[in-house]
Amino acid sequence: MFSRNFFDIKGGVGKWIAAPLFIVMVSSVVYTAGWGIYDDTLIRVGTFCLASVILLYAKCIASQRSWYGRLFDLILIAGIAAATYRYFWVAEELESGLYELENIDIIYALIGLTALAELVRRVVGTPLVIVCAVVFAYALYGNFLPSAVGHTGIDINELLITVWYSFDGVFGRPIAVVTSTILIFILFGALLEALGVGDVLLKLAFGLTRRFAGGDAHAAVLASGLFGTISGSAVANVVGTGVITIPMIKKRGFSASFAGAVEAVASSGGQLMPPIMGAVAFIMADVTGISYLNICLAALIPAFFYYASLFAFISCEANRLGMSSKKDEATIPLTTQEKLKCLPFVIPLGLIVVLMINGSSPALAGFWAVIAASVLGLIIEPQLLREPNRLWQMVVNGAKSASTITVAVAAVGIIIAVMNNTGLGLRFAEAIQIVGEGSLFISLIMMALGCLVLGMGMPTVPAYLIIILVMGPAVEALGVDTIAAHLFVVYYAVLSSVTPPVALAAFAAAPIAQANPIKVSITSLRLAIIGFLIPFAFVYQPSLLLITDSFSIGSLVIALVTTVSAIYLISACFSTKEAIRWLYLATGFAAISPFIMAQSAAVALVIFLCLRNMKKSSFVVSKIK
Predict the structure, then answer these.
(1) Nearest by Cα to 263 from 318, 209, 203, 218
(2) 236: closest CA among 24, 497, 61?
(3) Within a domain: residue 402?
(4) End-to-end alpha-carbon separation of the chain, Å?
(5) What does the alpha-carbon distance between residue 366 and residue 360 come to, in Å, rounded to a whole number?
(6) Among the listed residues 54, 50, 118, the one whose alpha carbon sits nearest the alpha carbon of residue 84
(7) By CB distance 3.0 to 4.6 Å, which of 200, 229, 287, 535 could disulfide with 341?
(8) Which residues, in sequence order, are CB contacts of 351 under 8 Å at separation 6+?
(9) pLDDT along the chain (625 residues), means of 10
(10) What angle do CA 241, 312, 623 make, to 5 degrees?
(11) What is its main location (predicted)?
(12) Is 230 within a domain?
């Protein structure tokens, strides 16, 4: 029928078929961020429809599929288009209060939901589809379950009105936040990638970290953390920066599995790093009512400890392997052009912070950041105007990334609608309280496990939304600060990408490192162990978050000392062969517990180890003399 490259979005006829879709998506994102929402219904429903068509075209039709596979994709596109068109008519009629759904309305809604499920399966993964299907079935048949877990029942008409024909389901609040706030920052990340900022950040990181024994591994952590905060996807960050960093880490002398694990853990942590936090900060601000700036401030110290622990693990591994720093080696300095290329990253980020401090909305701050980065990019590289392929690739990548997150949160809307209508979230909260018997520690463990299970195979934003709505109320009922409960969920949703058996970031790094995926995921788990403990630290010591009511300088100092002690002891455990290394591990865990005696013992052990190491060092120096 058609040649293989007919639908190729990079050239040929396919490029001209796809061009209007991508351009409309990007233009809509920029307009909404800069001038506001001109029609709420059109933005929510229209963006969803456009995103669905883009993904089906870019990821399905444009691939080398058989003609009948492409025909099926076209049927899906037609189904989504018809179902969303029907939405505009039915939703308007329902507002009158006199309209009841007809059979044709039910059919259209089911077609739309089925097409959405298939699209989510392809671009997000099966886990989210399974969760949506289970929740949908619970809504229909929950009245047959025991009263402890069941509900009074919802008929299909009422369910479809809520899920498809209202702003409480697929087109609910999550997709509104995504379309009004988050998409502009996704476009910002795609723009920086097109301008080549990532390569310059890598080179800068290598220059700054050459004094460390870990060298290239430390550089990978720094670069991935900087760029990961904007990209919003651990896997995309691994693939983007890992092709450069992982071979260099291996060349430095680290094992292949260690190299892949470093990149996976560093890339995942980018979503924990202010100011953008992979867009999850904006969702959190909307859900909690806490200002975006306060969320960034609260996330600052925990994110610093996350990366400090990774630096410590790399240093310990380098010392174990007998590596030394390469500070005396000549390094290739950044050229003037490369230094200038940092400006489209540094100045827009600074602009975002300044505008937010002065009361600007996140969307408007993102809009001006995109404008600033675009202008600076064209000034620094005027030849971009003669390289339309680079600009086109930015449009394609931005539109595809924006479409992926739009479809993902649309699916989450199904879960939210059912939970609100059936009280499922309250039942989960009651179950956690009953099983935990009022114990905060047990409840946190259950919440952490739930986050890891539900987060496996899901992007951070939908994983966060599902988990916080299901389990958040239970933890807050035990006296945990709202911001602490939400950051707790974000941390474990992010860390699910390096947690076996579905460690997506680790599995993405494995083929680049030419290592066994299981070994990479297990090593990632070891390197990220402090990350698993940090949420417990700021729940029990909320002064680490800086903005809680219980904040005080004294409690902050204690929290800093105990957390540093935990990092020191746990990293020491995995870098030594001493018989008492497991004592280090246990004491490191104890350092972040709420028990003063355990904290004191951990700090005392750290002081003892530091004094012993100083004595060993002075003895070696005296021997040399």
Answers:
(1) 218
(2) 497
(3) no
(4) 82
(5) 10
(6) 50
(7) 200
(8) 365, 368, 369, 372
(9) 41 63 90 86 91 79 66 87 90 76 90 93 85 91 83 86 90 88 87 82 78 80 79 78 86 90 91 82 86 90 93 86 68 76 88 86 90 91 80 84 89 88 76 73 84 76 81 79 91 88 85 90 91 92 86 88 88 72 84 84 85 63 48
(10) 130
(11) membrane
(12) no
pLDDT at 578: 67
The secondary structure of 191-219 as a DSSP string is HHHHTTHHHHHHHHHHHHTTTSTTTHHHH
d(CA 149, CA 159): 18
Q: Phi and psi for 575 in degrees, rounded to 5?
A: -120, 5
Tell whether 186 is covered by a domain.
no
Identify whether the C-beta of residue 281 lies closer than 8 Å to the C-beta of residue 298.
Answer: no
Q: Residues near 593 by Cβ (< 8 Å), separated by ≥ 6?
A: 540, 599
Please give the Cα distance from 192 to 178 (Å, whole number): 20
Q: Of 415, 211, 455, nearest to 222 (Cα)?
A: 211
Task: Give me the phi and psi of 213, to 5 degrees please.
Answer: -65, -35
Confidence (pLDDT) at 291: 87
* Residue 592, token pair as written in the block: 């972040």
Q: 458 and 404 in contact (C-beta within 8 Å)?
A: no
Q: How many domains does the chain have?
A: 1
C-alpha span between 345 and 370 (Å, rounded)? 10
State the pTM of this model.
0.82
Inter-residue contact 184 to 29 (CB < 8 Å): yes
Q: Residue 613's domain spans which residues? A: 552-625
Neighbours of 395 (CB within 10 A): 20
Residues 349 and 235 sit within 8 Å (Cβ to Cβ)? no
Instruction: Determine the angle formed by the axes of helices 440-455 and 424-436, rounding to 10 degrees.
Output: 130
DSSP 557-586: HHHHHHHHHHHHHHHHHTT---TTHHHHHH
Q: Is 10 helix (H, G, I), strand (E, B) or coil?
A: coil
Over its C-alpha atoms, the chain yields an Rg (Å, rounded) of 25
DSSP 3-state assignment of 181? helix
Separation in Å, CA 533 to CA 268, 435, 476, 571: 16, 22, 19, 13
